[in-house]
Specification:
Number of strands: 2
Strand content: under 5%
Number of helices: 7
Shape: globular
Radius of gyration: 19 Å
Structural class: mainly alpha
Largest sheet: 2 strands, antiparallel
Helix content: over 70%
Order of helices and strands: HEEHHHHHH
Distance between the termini: 39 Å
């Protein structure tokens, strides 16, 4: 399998997964119907929830995509472990839009927990990939120094931390729990600035 998939092919596959995930997101966005010049308020509410789901999922998927592209910059060639782990990661990324829409439709702590556990799993997979690449210098296209690994671990730990907190918040307020992970972007920017 390692001879079949090169780093470039795995990168291209990652791009394709991102495009499919975005297509799934856009598919769920249906404008509300208008009857006698009035917009259906229930459909309008659903439209705003789906729009928020599209934007938040797009942000999360894009962040993971950036982390994976950065990982591929350090990868000379994938072995079986990296290939299978990456494919698992891509499958879970494809589930992100579905769990996001489910969270907004069911509006329960269980739905928040399902999405949060998915994102926590995605982060742990990325952390594993970086850790594994750090252990195997023969797989590295350029030296993966301790500073870079530490930087990636810190940034990747922000995502599961925020989603774990959102599970707790879902018992108090669903709306707060849903919107809480949005602070991921400013949190990542602040951490990046703080480490410079």
């Amino acid at each position: 399998m390692s001879g079949l998939l090169t780093t470039e092919r795995l990168k291209s596959f990652s791009d394709s997964v991102l495009l499919v995930a975005i297509t799934i997101l856009a598919y769920n966005l249906v404008p509300p119907s208008v009857i006698n010049g009035q917009v259906n308020p229930d459909e309008l509410k659903d439209f705003y929830y789906n729009l928020y789901g599209l934007i938040s999922s797009f942000i999360v998927i894009s962040i993971y995509w950036i982390f994976s592209m950065y990982f591929f910059d350090y990868l000379k060639y994938p072995n079986e472990i990296i290939t299978l782990t990456s494919i698992t990661f891509f499958v879970l990324i494809l589930i992100t839009p579905i769990t996001t829409v489910g969270e907004l439709q069911y509006r329960s702590w269980e739905a928040v927990a399902a999405l949060s556990l998915l994102q926590i799993s995605n982060s742990l997979i990325m952390i594993f990939l970086w850790w594994y690449l750090g252990l195997n210098k023969s797989l590295q296209s350029k030296e993966l120094d301790t500073g870079t690994k530490k930087k990636m671990y810190i940034r990747l730990s922000i995502i599961p931390s925020l989603y774990a907190i959102s599970i707790g918040l879902s018992f108090i307020s669903f709306n707060v729990a849903v919107f809480f992970p949005v602070i991921m972007v400013p949190a990542l920017i602040l951490v990046a600035k703080a480490r410079r």
